[in-house]
Design a protein that fits this description.
- The chain is an alpha/beta fold.
- The protein has 2 domains: 131 residues, Enolase-like, N-terminal domain (Enolase-like, domain 1), CATH 3.30.390.10; 218 residues, TIM Barrel (Alpha-Beta Barrel), CATH 3.20.20.120.
- A 7-stranded parallel beta sheet has the order 7-8-9-10-11-12-13.
- The longest helix has 19 residues.
- The radius of gyration is 20 Å and the shape is globular.
């Protein structure tokens, strides 16, 4: 049968900044969050909408991109270039985004919203278009910095809920004593730590001491731009290193794995610029025999649903960060609950595309600003 698909004409874009209150503050080595603030993009075609949320923070505390910079980049440059035009596939849209340097999180939100729009137009789930193979994905919890006693209580709750992996945020001075206490009470759980770049080569003795705690991996111990020194650390410790912030492109992934700077890769679709890059990093990692998992950025239901679809790909063999929304938000901006059961998160399949729908009344209540971009 000959296809007559002529592409999708984007007739309008809506760009919001949303502030969603967290149930409790989320503390990592370099910041404390009380609200999840994020840009939400809605792309509209003829009777169809595509949704995505961006993952940059208000300030450059994770990577360089910020919400004010992203809003200007999207409003003044990217969205006026795509509104009013037709695209036959995400790959064709990416050709327009590719010439602009950096701004991967901003590019990702456009590409991801178009993937949702494209899949809805074709009548297929996002998982199927991406090449996913699972109907549910294994998930773990990420526990922010807190007192040791509070951390132990949080782990107990997560274990009761059946989560497949516990990840602890660590920082200098909040590491070995914490691990000693956790392993004393929970000797057999799958345990990882995330340093969010808090250490350096001068801390090699501390990192080496973590070998005693049977960690599945140590995530991003060193600087965001330092694959070389991660290789030095990986040669010096038994525990696998997992890279997050350092992996922005498929080339970064290849260099890190070829130089043995890491044995595990965290893929965040927003960090790497969209699904095209995320799938390439997935494939490069598989070629090196390195497992991947899907990291989280405290996303609302829209971003969380995107992550779950991505994590259905074959090489996502370690539990990801897409735990139940109710752990973070009293109320989400989507109508369908994204809740894990026994550590497994079902891929949302309520219709084609992303498989979730917006709770418009609540979304309006937590929207800080709204802009419309039309031809």
């Amino acid at each position: 049968m000959t296809s007559h698909f002529q592409g999708i004409k984007i007739v309008e874009a809506e760009l919001r900044v949303v502030s969603l209150p967290l149930i409790s503050p989320f503390i990592v080595s370099n910041q404390t969050m009380t609200d999840k603030v994020f840009p939400l993009l809605i792309l509209r075609a003829d009777g169809v909408e595509g949704y995505a949320e961006a993952v940059m923070d208000p300030f450059p505390d994770y990577l360089e991109e910020t919400i004010p910079g992203a809003m200007a980049f999207l409003r003044d440059l990217i969205l006026p270039q795509i509104v009013g035009k037709s695209f036959s596939s995400p790959a064709e849209l990416n050709q327009l985004l590719a010439p602009w340097r950096g701004h991967r999180m901003s590019k990702a939100v456009v590409e991801m919203a178009f993937w949702d729009l494209w899949c809805k137009t074709l009548g297929v789930p996002l998982k199927a278009a991406l090449g996913g193979v699972r109907d549910a994905v294994p998930v773990g919890v990420s526990i922010g910095i807190a007192s040791i006693s509070e951390t132990l209580d949080r782990i107990a709750v997560a274990q009761q809920a059946g989560y497949k992996r516990t990840k602890l945020k660590i920082a200098q001075g909040h590491d070995l004593a914490l691990l000693e206490a956790v392993r004393s009470k929970f000797p057999d759980i799958k345990l990882t730590v995330d340093a969010n770049t808090a250490y350096g080569l001068a801390d090699l003795a501390t990192l080496r001491a973590m070998d005693a705690f049977q960690l599945d991996y140590i995530e991003q111990p060193l600087a965001v731009d330092d694959i070389h020194d991660h290789a030095i650390v990986q040669r010096s410790i038994e525990t696998a290193i997992c890279l997050d912030e350092s992996i922005r492109t498929p080339a970064d992934c290849r260099k890190a794995l070829a130089s043995e700077a890491a044995r595990v890769i965290n893929i965040k679709v927003g960090r790497v610029g969209g699904y095209e890059a995320a799938r390439a990093i997935h494939d490069v990692s598989a070629a090196f025999g390195a497992p991947v998992w899907c990291g989280g950025m405290l996303e609302s239901g829209i971003g969380r649903a995107h992550n779950i679809h991505l994590a259905s790909l074959p090489n996502f063999t370690k539990p990801g960060d897409t735990s139940s929304s109710i752990r973070y938000f009293k109320r989400d901006i989507i109508n369908e609950p994204l809740e894990a059961k026994d550590g497994m998160m079902p891929v949302p399949m309520h219709g084609a595309g992303l498989g979730v729908t917006l709770d418009w009344a609540f979304l309006d209540a937590v929207t800080q600003s709204k802009e419309r971009i039309a031809p």
